[in-house]
C-alpha cells in the first residue's frame, strides 16, 4: 500500500525525467544541425531552407547565440499561439481535430476534478472505516485509500453523494461530448465546403464490376455509367494490379541507396574500392566489388521494371474489376456514392474515393470476393480475440517470471505493426481507414491487457479462471471491488507513460539518431537531405487508443478515487502542448480524412463512460448500497440513448455528403470558372503512383500536392522563393526565426 | 406423462373438430346466400355479381343442386390450381409471398422429418435408460419419451448422432432459407419492374422541412427541390393535418348507418316510428324520434365538416412541415430517396413514399420531433418488455387460479389490437410498417408467453425467480432439460391451435354472422351489400408470428423429440391449402408492400434456429456430453455469419431501388409514351383521402385502385360487364361456377 510519500518519490522521479527530456529538447532544437529533425514540417512546406548565410563554419552546426538559450521554454507559447483556423490550413483538419481530443479531456476533467475534490474527497476523508479495520484486523491502508470510497463504512448513507456525483459526471461528460461532436461536425462540413477543388470530390470508387464476355472492364464501366448516369458521368480510370511493379521500384530504390552509400564511402577513402558479400544481408557469400555489383543490379532491375510496366499495361490479368469513376459535378458524384446501382447488391458497388494520397494501392488489387472472405476471417478472429489476449496474459506472466522484461517490451513495440498488418490483411482501401481499424484493435488490447489485467492481476489473479466462469452480473462486482485498490498503481502508470512518455515524445530521440546517421552515410544532395528527414505523423492507430486509456481511467476513478484526477489533468495539458508543438513543427500528415475518425473517438469515450457506470454499480452493491442499483442502472440506459441520439444527429456528417452542399459548391464553381476543363483535371488523378513517376522524378507526386496546397487560401506559402528565404509564417514562426 | 393412447385420443378429438369445420364450410359455401362471405374477393374484383338469374325464389338462398354436394371437397384442388404468377396478379405479391412462408415450412421440415425418423428415432428407441430408471426410481415415462433424446444414457457415444443431425438440419435450413430469400428478392424486383406505373414510384416523402419565416412550407419545399434537384423535380403535395375532419366524416358515416337502420325498420313496420335514447350508447337519456334525430345530427355534422374542410385548407396550423415530392423520373425519385439532402441530418429527411392506400394518414400529422420522442419511448419500453411479459405471466397464473379462463382468452383476443395501438403510437407512417412492427411484438410475446412459459412453468416454475438471477450460461441448460418433457404438451397445442384452429379459419364464423346481421338490418342497395362484406386480409401482424411459433417448435424439437415433426408438417400443409383458398377467394389486401416483410420472416427463422442450437448445447451438457459444447458452439457462429451474408446479399433489394432498374423503366416508358402527362398523373395522387371524396362518392378511391388493377397485365378483369356476368377466371373459378 503506497503512502503519500511513495507517490511523492515516484512523482519526483518522473517529473525529473520529464524535465530532463524537456531541457534536452530545448537545447537540441536550438542547434542548427538538428533543425531538420525538429522542424521538418516547415522544410516540407518549403518555408524553411538549409542555413546558407555566411559566418563561422561551426555555427552551421552549433548555436553560439547565448541569448537564445535563455528563452529555451519559448516553444510552449509558440505552440499555443497559432490560432485554430491557421492550424487547419497549416496541418490539415485531421491534426487540428486530433488536438481537440486532448482539449476535450481538459474540458471534461477540470470541472469533474474540481467537483470531486470539493465534495467527494471531504466525504470520503471524514470517516474512519479504514482506521478501525486497521485496528481490528491489522489491515494496512494508505493515505490515498483514505481519500477513496473504501473509507466509507458498509451501508452508509454517504454513498448517495457518490451516486449524485456519478449522475453529475455523466451529464457533464455527455454535455461536453455533444458540444464537441457538433463542433467537429460543423468544422468538417466547413472544411469540405471551403476546401479547394480536389479530385476525390468528383470521384467514386466502383468495385465488383461484373465480368462481361464481350466487353473489357473499361468499356463495361463506361457503358454502365453512360446509361445510368447519363447527365453526370465524365471519365473513369480502371484499377490496375501493379503491386509487382511497385515492389520492383521499391527494390531499385533500396539498391540505389546502397550505391550512393558505397560511392560516398569510396569518394571519402579513394585508396580502396568498397566490397560487399552477395548473400543474406551481406553476411556471407561471394565477395564482389560493391559499386559494380549495385550498378549491375540496378540495371537489371531497370530492365525488369520496364518489362513489368509493359506487361501491366497490356495483360488483362492485371486489370481489376474496379474503377475510379469521375463525374461532371459534385452532385453527380454524391448521388452515385450514396445510391445502389444494380439489382444485384454485390455488383457495381460504389463508395466515395479517398484522396489519391490516402489510397492504399496494394489492397485495391484484392478481388472483392476474397475481400469478403478476409473480412469474415477478421470477424471470426474478433470473437476469440479477447480470449486470446487473456491467454496471452498467461504467457506474459510466464515470460515475466523467466525472461527479462525486455522481451515483453519488444512485443509491445511491435504490437502496433502486427495490428496494422491485420488491418491490411482485411483489405481496407485507404490509409486512414487502416489506421482507424488498427486503433480499435489497439484500444481493445489496451483495455484488456493494460487496464483489466492490471486491475484483476493485482487483486484476484488466482481467481481469473473462476472469473471467466462466473455469472455475468458478478463481473462488475469483481472488477468494482478491485478498482479502488489499484489507484496507486495507475497513478504511477500515468506518471511514467503519460508524463515522462509524452515529454520523451518531443525529444524525438529515434528520428534524431537516424537523421544524423543517414546524413553522414547517404546524403549527397539537398534532395537526399530532404529525404533523410523523417517527420512522422500523428500515428492515429497508436496515439488515440493511448488517450482513450486516460479517459477510461479518469471516468472510472472520478467517483471512486478522485485523487487520480489531477494526475490525468496534468497528462492532458502536457500532451496538448507537446502534440500541438509537434503538429505545427514536425509531423507531416500523409492524408487528410477531414476528421473522419471522430465518431470512433466519441464512441469509445461513451463506452468508457458506460463501463465506469457498471463498475460503480458493482462496487456499490458490495458496499451494502444494493438499493442504489435501480437508480444507477438508469445511467447506462440514458447514456446509450444519448449515444443513439448523437449517432443519428451527427454521424451522417461523417458518412454522407449532403446534396445541398454539393449543389452549392457546384453552382459557385460554375459561376467562378465557367471554362474549367474538369476532364483534364481528373484524367490522371487516380493513376497508380508507379505510373505517375514514369516521366518525371519521384518528387512529381509531392509536387502536385504542393501545388494544390499552394493554391490554398489559408497557407501563405511562397514557392518561388523556396530554399532561399526562410519565409515568416503569420504568427507562429517566431521560434523558427530565432535560429538561422 | 402422456402415452401414445392419450395422444391418440387428443388427435382424434382435434381431427374430428377439424373435419367438422371443414364439412360445415363445404356445406355453407355452396349456399348462394353465403356467397359474399366465402367469395368476397371476386365480388370486389367485379368478377362476380349477386345471383340474378330467374328460377325458384328459394334457390337464391339455398343450393338445391344435390350433385354439387358430392364434390364438396373440390375447393382443395381449386385452391391449389391457380399458378403463382396468376396468384400475384390476382391477390398481389404480398399474399403470394405470404403463402411461400408455409411452403418454406414444408420444404424445411419434410427432409428434416424423414431424416429424423430414419436415423434419430431408431437411435433413441434402442436404449433402455427410461425402462431402467423406471425400475430403479419408479419414474414413470411414456412411449413418446422413449422416442426422444431422454432415452439415451448419460455420457453415451450415441449423442454424436444428434450432433451430426444438428449440423445437417442447420445446413439444410440455411440452404433452403437462402434459396427462398433469393427467390423472393427476385420476385420482388420482377414485380416492381413489371408493375404498371404507380405514383409511389415517382414520389418521395420529405419530412422535417425546416421552418422559414419568409416562406410557407409549400414554397420552401418547392424552392429547395428546384435548387437541389433542378433537372428532376416535378411537383409536390404538402401534408395536411386533417385528422379532425376525418373523424367528423367517420362520425357522419356512422350516423348515416343508424339512419339507414331506422328507415329500414320503419319501412318494415310502418305502424310506429322508431325511437332512440340520446345518451351513452342509446342506453339512457331523452327519448327522441330516431329518424328525425339522426337526420338532424347528420345535418349538423355536414355543416361542421364543411367548416372544418375550409379551416384545414386555410389555417397554417394544419399544414405540417412535410410534403410528398414527385419527380419527373423514377431515377430522380430513387436518387432523392437514397441520399442525404441537407447538412443538418435531421432536416429535409427523405424516404420513399408508400402507396397512397398504404399510408396511415393519421400519423403523418405527428411532428417529427415528437415522433423521435415516441420512438425513444418505444425503445425504452422494449427493454423492460420481456420483464413485463414475465410479470404478466405471474398475473396470468394468478388469474388462472381464481378466474375462469375466459378472461385470459379475452386478453389474448385483444392483445393484437393493443400491440397495433403501441405501433400506431410509435408513429409509423404506413399500414404495412405498422403490421410489421406489431408482428415483431407479437412474436416476442408468443415466444415468451407461449413457448418459454410453457416450457418452464411445467417443470421449474417455482424456480423462475432463481432462473432470472442465475448465470447466463445456465439458462440454456435449464430450458434444454425441460424441452423433451414438454413434447406431449406441444403436440396437443399443435393439434388444437394448428389443426382445428386453421380449419376454423376457413369457416369464417364471425364474418358469416356479421354479414347476415348487417344484410338484415342495414342493406338497402347493392352498394350497401358490397360494404356489408368483410373480406378481411391476411393479418400479417398476427398470422406471421403464429407460423413462426411452428418454425421454432420444429427446429427446437427436430434433434430432441422428432415425434413432433409430423404434427408440424400436417399444420404446414393444412394451413397452406386453407390460406391459399382464403387468399384466392376471400381476403382483400389493403396494401401492396411488394413482400417488404421477408427480411423479418427470414430473420425470425434464423433466430429460432440459433435458439434451438443453444438449447441443444445446454441439454447435451447436462447429459454427460459436455465435450460436444465446442463442436456445437460452431453452429450459432456459422448461422450468424450466414445471416450476415444474407443481409448483405439480399436485404438491399428490400430497402433500396437500384438506379439501374429505375433508369431502365424510365427509358422504356419514355419510348412507349413520349407524350405522357406525368404531372397530371401525380398532381392529386397524394391528396388526403378526405379531400378525394369531395365531389364523388366514397367509392372514388376504390375505383381509382380498380382502374389501376384493370390496367394490369396479369389480371383479366372485365369492368364493363361488372355486376352482370360472373366472369370466369382463367383456371381457378370452377368452384365459383358451380354456385349460381
What does the model show?
- Two copies of one chain form a homodimer.
- By secondary structure, chain A is mainly alpha-helical.
- The first copy, chain A, has three domains: 4-196 and 427-655, no CATH class; 199-354, no CATH class; 377-425, no CATH class.
- The first copy, chain A, is 65% helix and 4% strand.
- Chain A is built from 34 helices and six strands.
- In chain A, the strands form two sheets. In chain A, strands 2-5-1-6 form a four-stranded antiparallel sheet.
- In chain A, helix 17 crosses helix 19 (431-460).
- The two termini of chain A are 53 Å apart.
- The interface between A and B is large, with 41 and 42 residues.
Q: Span from first to last CA of chain A?
A: 53 Å
Fraction of helical residues of chain A: 55-70%
**What is the chains' assembly state?**
homodimer
The average pLDDT score of chain A comes to: 78
Number of helices of chain A: 34
Strand line-up in the sheet with most strands of chain A: 2-5-1-6
Shape of chain A: globular
Tell me the count of domains of chain A. Answer: 3
Q: Roughly what fraction of the amino acids of chain A lie in strands?
A: under 5%
Topology of helices and strands:
Two copies of one chain form a homodimer.
Chain A (H helix, E strand, L loop, with lengths): L3 H25 L6 H4 L1 H5 L21 H5 L4 H7 L2 H8 L1 H33 L3 H9 L5 H4 L12 H36 L8 E5 L9 H12 L4 E8 L2 H26 L6 E3 L9 E3 H25 L4 E9 L2 H9 L10 E4 L8 H4 L3 H15 L2 H18 L3 H21 L4 H30 L3 H6 L5 H8 L4 H21 L1 H13 L4 H7 L7 H19 L5 H22 L12 H24 L7 H22 L1 H4 L3 H14 L5 H6 L5 H4 L6 H13 L22 H5 L2
Antiparallel strand pairs in A: 1-5, 1-6, 2-5, 3-4
Helix pairs in contact in A: 1-22, 5-26, 6-7, 7-10, 7-25, 7-26, 10-27, 10-28, 12-13, 14-30, 17-19, 18-19, 19-25, 21-27, 22-26, 25-26, 25-27, 27-28
Amino acid at each position: 500500500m503506497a503512502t503519500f510519500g511513495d507517490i511523492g518519490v515516484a512523482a519526483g522521479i518522473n517529473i525529473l525525467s520529464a524535465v530532463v527530456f524537456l531541457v534536452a529538447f530545448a537545447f537540441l532544437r536550438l542547434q542548427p544541425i538538428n533543425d531538420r529533425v525538429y522542424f521538418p514540417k516547415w522544410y516540407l512546406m518549403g518555408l524553411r531552407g538549409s542555413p546558407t548565410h555566411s559566418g563561422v563554419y561551426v555555427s552551421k552546426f552549433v548555436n553560439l547565440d547565448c541569448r537564445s538559450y535563455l528563452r529555451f521554454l519559448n516553444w510552449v507559447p509558440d505552440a499555443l499561439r497559432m490560432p485554430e483556423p491557421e492550424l487547419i490550413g497549416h496541418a490539415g483538419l485531421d491534426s487540428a481535430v486530433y488536438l481537440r481530443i486532448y482539449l476535450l479531456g481538459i474540458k471534461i476533467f477540470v470541472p469533474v476534478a474540481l467537483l470531486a475534490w470539493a465534495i467527494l474527497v471531504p466525504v470520503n476523508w471524514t470517516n474512519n472505516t479504514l482506521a478501525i479495520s486497521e485496528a481490528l484486523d491489522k489491515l494496512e491502508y494508505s493515505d490515498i485509500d483514505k481519500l477513496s470510497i473504501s473509507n466509507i463504512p458498509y451501508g452508509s448513507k454517504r454513498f448517495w453523494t457518490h451516486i449524485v456525483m456519478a449522475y453529475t459526471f455523466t451529464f457533464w461528460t455527455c454535455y461536453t461530448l455533444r458540444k464537441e461532436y457538433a463542433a467537429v461536425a460543423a468544422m468538417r462540413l466547413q472544411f469540405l465546403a471551403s476546401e479547394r477543388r480536389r479530385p476525390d470530390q468528383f470521384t467514386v470508387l466502383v468495385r465488383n464490376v461484373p465480368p462481361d464476355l464481350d466487353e473489357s472492364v473499361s468499356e463495361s464501366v463506361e457503358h454502365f455509367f453512360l446509361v445510368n448516369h447519363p447527365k453526370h458521368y465524365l471519365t473513369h480510370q480502371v484499377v490496375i494490379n501493379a503491386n509487382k511493379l511497385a515492389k520492383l521500384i521499391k527494390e531499385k530504390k533500396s539498391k540505389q541507396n546502397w550505391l550512393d552509400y558505397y560511392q560516398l564511402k569510396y569518394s571519402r577513402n579513394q585508396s580502396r574500392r568498397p566490397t560487399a558479400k552477395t548473400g543474406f544481408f551481406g553476411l556471407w557469400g561471394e565477395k564482389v566489388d560493391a559499386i559494380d555489383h549495385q550498378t549491375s543490379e540496378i540495371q537489371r532491375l531497370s530492365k525488369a521494371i520496364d518489362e513489368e510496366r509493359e506487361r501491366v499495361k497490356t495483360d488483362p490479368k492485371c486489370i481489376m474489376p474496379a474503377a475510379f469513376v469521375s463525374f461532371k459535378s459534385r452532385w453527380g458524384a454524391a448521388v452515385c456514392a450514396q445510391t445502389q446501382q444494380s439489382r444485384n447488391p454485390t455488383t457495381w458497388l460504389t463508395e466515395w474515393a479517398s484522396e489519391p494520397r490516402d489510397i492504399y494501392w496494394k489492397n485495391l488489387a484484392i478481388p472483392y470476393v476474397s475481400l469478403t472472405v478476409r473480412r469474415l476471417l477478421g470477424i471470426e478472429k474478433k470473437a476469440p480475440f479477447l480470449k486470446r489476449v487473456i491467454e496471452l496474459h498467461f504467457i506474459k506472466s510466464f515470460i515475466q517470471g523467466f525472461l527479462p522484461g525486455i522481451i515483453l517490451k519488444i512485443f509491445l513495440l511491435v504490437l502496433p505493426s502486427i495490428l496494422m498488418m491485420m488491418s491490411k490483411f482485411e483489405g481496407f482501401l485507404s490509409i486512414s481507414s487502416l489506421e482507424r481499424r488498427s486503433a480499435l484493435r489497439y484500444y481493445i488490447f489496451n483495455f484488456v491487457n493494460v487496464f483489466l489485467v492490471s486491475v484483476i492481476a493485482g487483486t484476484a489473479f488466482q481467481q481469473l479462471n473462476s472469473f471467466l466462469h462466473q455469472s455475468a452480473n458478478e463481473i462488475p462486482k469483481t472488477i468494482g471491488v478491485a478498482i479502488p485498490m489499484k489507484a496507486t498503481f495507475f497513478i504511477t502508470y500515468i506518471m511514467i507513460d503519460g508524463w515522462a512518455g509524452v515529454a520523451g515524445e518531443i525529444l524525438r530521440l529515434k528520428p534524431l539518431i537516424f537523421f544524423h546517421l543517414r546524413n553522414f552515410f547517404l546524403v549527397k544532395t539537398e534532395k537526399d537531405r530532404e529525404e533523410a528527414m523523417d517527420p512522422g505523423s500523428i500515428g492515429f492507430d497508436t496515439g488515440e487508443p493511448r488517450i482513450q486509456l486516460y479517459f477510461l481511467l479518469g471516468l472510472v476513478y472520478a467517483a471512486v478515487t478522485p485523487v487520480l484526477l489531477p494526475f490525468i489533468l496534468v497528462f492532458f495539458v502536457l500532451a496538448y502542448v507537446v502534440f500541438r508543438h509537434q503538429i505545427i513543427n514536425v509531423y507531416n500528415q500523409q492524408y487528410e480524412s477531414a476528421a473522419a475518425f471522430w465518431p470512433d473517438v466519441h464512441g469509445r469515450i461513451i463506452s468508457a463512460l458506460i463501463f465506469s457506470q457498471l463498475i460503480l454499480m458493482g462496487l456499490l452493491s458490495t458496499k451494502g448500497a444494493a438499493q442504489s442499483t435501480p437508480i444507477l442502472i438508469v445511467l447506462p440506459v440514458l447514456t446509450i440513448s444519448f449515444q443513439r441520439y448523437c449517432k443519428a444527429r451527427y454521424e451522417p456528417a461523417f458518412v454522407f455528403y449532403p446534396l445541398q452542399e454539393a449543389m452549392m459548391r457546384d453552382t459557385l464553381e460554375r459561376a467562378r470558372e465557367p471554362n474549367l476543363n474538369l476532364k483534364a483535371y481528373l484524367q490522371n488523378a487516380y493513376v497508380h503512383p508507379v505510373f505517375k513517376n514514369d516521366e518525371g522524378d519521384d518528387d512529381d507526386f509531392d509536387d502536385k500536392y504542393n501545388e494544390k496546397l499552394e493554391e490554398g487560401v489559408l497557407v501563405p506559402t511562397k514557392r518561388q522563393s523556396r530554399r532561399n528565404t526562410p519565409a515568416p509564417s503569420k504568427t507562429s514562426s517566431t521560434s523558427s526565426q530565432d535560429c538561422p
